Amino acid sequence: MQPDQLLTRRRQRALIDSLNAGALLTATKLSETHRVSTRTIYRDVADLQRAGVPIQSQAGMGYMLRWPIPIPSFLQEEPAMPHRNDPPTIPLDAVEWMPTGDDADPKARLLAHIRIGGLDMHLEASEIEYEDADGINLQCAKVESRRSDDFNSLCNMMDCSFETIAIEGREYVLVAVPYGR
Q: Do residues 13 and 68 both lie within one domain?
């Protein structure tokens, strides 16, 4: 499954969870709750309705489910990849980092070139800060990393926080991305 499909499925599951509460919710309220545009809510609701989810809409009023429903099978989670206790290791001192953050703080984002099994990739390191949200510390990429939107989307898609690594006394999350052809 493609990452964008996984993100859509998770968002649609969360949308059904919100509507299962039984209240009439506007697209604006749903977009604020799920941190997406109202257009995305309109598309998700239309997709779910076409798939047979009994979401009722009242023009100018919002959306609702008349009764709670289970999450449809087409939106069920796929099994997680098993965790390895002995993955291959790349020593941190073997990685050559290039600062690529914005002018205010170039080291807020670092890039390195790596090769895994003949596949060229760049390893992105986005510096992390924590934001208090109702007593919960949420990981956020520093704005200066130029990746805060990408990182927030990744957090929403994965629905978790990420392990961090210290590089020169700063806290980063790493993401490996294959080069395009």
A: yes
Our CA dihedral for 164, 170, 174, 179, rounded to 10 degrees, sits at 180
Structure tokens at 25: 């919710």
The values of phi and psi at residue 135, to 5°, are 85, 0
Q: Which domain does 157 fall in, by range?
A: 92-178
Residue 17 CB contacts under 8 Å (≥ 6 apart), including other chains: 71
pTM: 0.50
Say how far residue 70 (Cα) sits from the centre of its chain. 23
Query: Would residue 80 count as lying in a domain?
Result: no
| Environment class of 173 (CB within 10 Å of its CB; exposed 0-12, middle 13-18, buried 19+) | buried
Measured between alpha carbons, how far is residue 7 from residues 25, 66, 144, 159 in Å?
21, 26, 25, 10
- Supply the pLDDT for residue 16: 92
